[in-house]
Amino acid sequence: MKRKLILAKTKVAKAEMALAKVQEYLSPAELPTDLETVTDEERFLFRRIGLKMKAFLMLGRREVFDGTVQNMHFHWKHRELVKIVVKGKTFEQVKHIAISLEAESGGVLIALDKTTKGYSITFYRGKNYKRPQVLKPRNLLTRRRAMARSIELQRREALNHHISVLRHKIWKLKSQLVRYR
Fold it and tell me: Entry's SMART domains (predicted)?
């Protein structure tokens, strides 16, 4: 059992190194200081319109990458709002995703709501919206690297769970040995 535990710990170290290698390509943008202000009435109306919107973007296991921001700008070409649906995450993770999308896209976060499909994040493009020259930000991960990051995170999480199960089994065996002596 202890050998399995040591082996799992070395695998976690390898997973950490692989994750760090993928993460070095990621340099998230900071929130702009000159954010556009939206009144409470506008926020209420945009939230209501955003919840009724049929057109939305799904945010999958890759989370925020350059293609997500590009699709937001494509939506803003014809609409003022973009609705992004996130499945299977906690509220804190969705809030972190929303803040990073707000920083990367330059839009204004309107609402973060729990719906039947998951969490709905609504963004407003702003009153003085001008399409950027480059729709895909260079500081985010590409589609392929975002998938590799997701796989490495999943791998690390599974290994940590495996280690906790092994520790529990070792503790159980030790307690049984003490009991039988």
Answer: CRS1_YhbY
CATH fourth-level superfamily of 32-140: YhbY-like (3.30.110.60)
Domain-wise residue ranges, the chain: 1-26+141-181, 32-140
* Distance, CA of 22 to CA of 155 (rounded, Å): 14
For the stretch 170-176, contacts whose Cβ atoms lie closer than 8 Å and that sit 24 or more positions apart, written own/partner, are 170/1, 170/2, 170/5, 173/1
Taking Cα atoms as reference points, which of 16, 23, 10 lies closest to residue 140?
23
pLDDT digits (tens, 9 = 90+) for 88-139: 789 999 999 999 999 888 899 999 999 998 999 999 998 888 888 888 888 8
> How many angstroms separate the Cα of 160 from the Cα of each of 13, 62, 164, 172?
11, 21, 6, 18
pLDDT in tens, 60-99: 888 888 899 999 999 999 999 999 999 978 999 999 999 9
Amino acid at 32: P
Handedness of CA 110, 91, 113, 117 (dihedral sign): positive
